[in-house]
Design brief:
Structural class of chain B: mainly alpha
Helix content of chain B: over 70%
Oligomer: heterodimer
Order of helices and strands of chain B: HHHHHHHHHHHHHH
CATH superfamily of the largest domain in chain A: P-loop containing nucleotide triphosphate hydrolases
Number of domains of chain A: 2
Number of strands of chain A: 9
Number of helices of chain A: 10
Distance between the termini of chain B: 50 Å
Helix content of chain A: 25-40%
CATH topology of the largest domain in chain A: Rossmann fold
Radius of gyration of chain B: 21 Å
Strand content of chain B: under 5%
Largest sheet of chain A: 6 strands, mixed
Distance between the termini of chain A: 30 Å
CATH class of the domain at 15-203 in chain B: Mainly Alpha
Number of strands of chain B: 0
CATH architecture of the largest domain in chain A: 3-Layer(aba) Sandwich
Structural class of chain A: alpha/beta
CATH topology of the domain at 15-203 in chain B: ABC transporter involved in vitamin B12 uptake, BtuC
């Protein structure tokens, strides 16, 4: 493939004190697709996200976004991040519209005063994720799935080309999960790159074009049918293969 | 009617009451604005720490013949830096780091006050002396107050972003560390303004209560700011009048009014447990009817 990868991670090592979190991660992510980053708790998913965001500095290795150093991509607003539910203060006194508007701040002056074009971009993003009617609610007054969509809308208002979503299906019911899956598939079809971290293996085949199994390093990368097999899964999940993980594989084999 | 007017106008004929009002309002507004962020960030202890840690700075400024704001700012900033440093480089948790640093610096201040012969009245530093402020004090309090209020209001959207989602700030190239430093700097300056009005011990109330009260009453940040400032202004005016008419401690009276506002918001506000219980009872009654 000749296109520049949206994200390229080369030989990334991160350790916290003496505890290694990532040991030589290699990952290339093609643009315009939905990628899943799969691993159990402690596999380094969050650390890898932090390394991509520049929140932890790898002791070794490099992260490239769109073929350039990550700082440049961040300043240009090309990367957006939707946090895990538990990392958000849902009591915070901001409306859904306020949150989405924060996607525009990188383009605004010191006071971050919204211009007409910014308000239009915020409205368009809200429309896109079907939250227009709820835009003036306090952010915590949304359901689990709506909250996720609000943060996706922030990334859209930002005009981000790469969206990182941390556990987007945690605390989300099945119907909302389907809505979010459809939304992310559409965004990828438009050329945006989506990177989702999850340990919810059931949701993966419908959502992801490609997955990487992580256990401090990338165990395997490829299409879900290729990667979600007992061998690699056992390696990624330390010998313990979650029973539900095998369901899509079996149905895939039967088809 | 004329009674009310004279009741309000009488104290204002005295220069010391005018000065007290000006300093109290500068302090009250600056603290109220800042309190909205401190409440949301959970930085209340930090406010307490900075206010106590400035004591040695005040004493040393006096010895060096400098305006006390300079020493206070240096020691306030040093306390913040030490707490952050301890937190990052040792296994001591943040609350312990805060406790150790501020009581340590406060103790150094107490020792300095007792050892160095000076005209510093410890009681005034601890509990404020708003009725005795000089013209120089007013200029300092008002000047610093205006700087703090202007900076916080101009950068309020970034500071809300920082308080809500620092990771997103970082993701779009806005430095959360710089915003954190801006807030901590504003905290150190605000403490200096507030020292004169309410003293070291009660500064923390001015820095927390207005924001906490407003937070109980609204779901929007801009409204929270307005409510906090309104409540704080009311409390400052009430405090100054209480000290004129009842000879009450000004700082004490201000904080009493702030606390009453909080209790009222807690008991009567939209999220009050009382209201919830009444609502449940009404629902139960409707269900049985």
């Amino acid at each position: 493939m000749t296109t520049t990868p949206a994200l390229r991670i080369h030989d990334v090592h991160v350790r916290y004190g003496r505890a290694p979190a990532l040991e030589g991660v290699e990952l290339e992510i093609a643009p315009g697709r939905v990628h899943g980053l799969i691993g159990m708790n402690g596999s380094g998913k969050s650390t890898l996200f932090k390394a991509v965001m520049g929140l932890v500095r790898p002791q070794r290795g490099a992260v490239e976004l769109f073929g350039a150093p990550p700082e440049a991509a961040r300043r240009a607003g090309r990367v957006a991040y939707a946090p895990q539910s538990e990392d958000v203060d849902w009591q915070f006194p901001v409306s859904v519209r306020d949150v989405v508007a924060m996607g525009r701040y990188g383009r605004l002056g010191v006071q971050r005063r919204l211009r007409d074009e910014d308000r239009a971009a915020v409205a368009a993003a809200l429309e896109r994720v079907e939250l227009t009617d709820l835009a003036d609610r306090q952010i915590g007054a949304l359901s689990g799935g709506q909250r996720k969509r609000a943060f996706v809308a922030r990334g859209l208002a930002q005009g981000a080309e790469l969206l990182l979503l941390d556990e987007p299906f945690a605390g989300v019911d099945k119907r909302s999960e389907a809505t979010i899956t459809a939304l992310l598939r559409e965004l990828a079809a438009e050329g945006r790159t989506i990177l989702v971290s999850t340990h919810d293996l059931v949701a993966v085949p419908a959502l992801c074009d490609e997955v990487a199994l992580l256990n401090r390093r990338v165990v395997i990368q490829g299409p879900p049918t290729h990667a979600l097999r007992p061998g690699p899964l056992a390696e990624a999940f330390g010998g313990f293969v979650p029973a539900e993980a095998l369901i899509p594989i079996e149905s895939g084999a039967a088809a | 009617m004329t009674d009310v007017v004279t009741w309000i106008a009488d104290p204002l004929e005295y220069a010391f009451i005018q000065r007290a009002l000006i300093v109290a309002l500068a302090c009250g507004i600056a603290c109220a604005v800042l309190s909205c962020w401190l409440t949301l960030l959970g930085w209340s202890l930090m406010g307490d720490a900075v206010s106590h840690a400035v004591l040695p700075g005040v004493v040393l400024s006096y010895v060096a013949g400098l305006p006390f704001a300079i020493g206070a700012f240096l020691f306030g900033s040093a306390a913040v830096a030490m707490i952050g440093g301890l937190n990052r480089t040792s296994r001591v948790k943040e609350d312990a780091a805060i406790g150790i640093v501020f009581t340590g610096l406060f103790a150094v201040g107490l020792v300095l006050v007792s050892v160095i012969p000076s005209e510093i009245d410890l009681f005034h530093i601890l509990f404020g002396n708003v009725l005795g402020v000089s013209d120089g004090d007013i200029a300092q309090a008002v000047g610093l107050g205006i700087v703090v209020i202007a900076v916080l209001l101009l950068r309020r959207r970034d500071l809300v972003l920082y308080a809500f989602d620092p990771t997103h700030a970082h993701a779009i190239g806005i430095s959360p560390r710089r915003l954190e430093a801006l807030l901590l700097g504003a905290l150190a300056l605000t403490v200096i303004v507030a020292l004169q009005a309410v003293g070291i011990v009660l500064v923390v109330a001015m820095l927390i209560t207005p924001g906490a009260t407003a937070y109980l009453l609204t779901d929007r940040f801009d409204r929270m700011l307005a409510i906090a400032v309104g409540g704080s202004v009311l409390a400052c005016v009430a405090g100054v009048y209480a000290s004129y008419y009842a000879d009450a401690s000004t700082g004490g009276a201000i904080v009493c009014v702030l606390t009453l506002q909080f209790l009222a918001a807690y008991a009567l506000g939209p999220r009050s447990p009382l209201r919830r219980r009444l609502g449940e009872r009404a629902e139960a009654a409707a269900a049985t009817a």
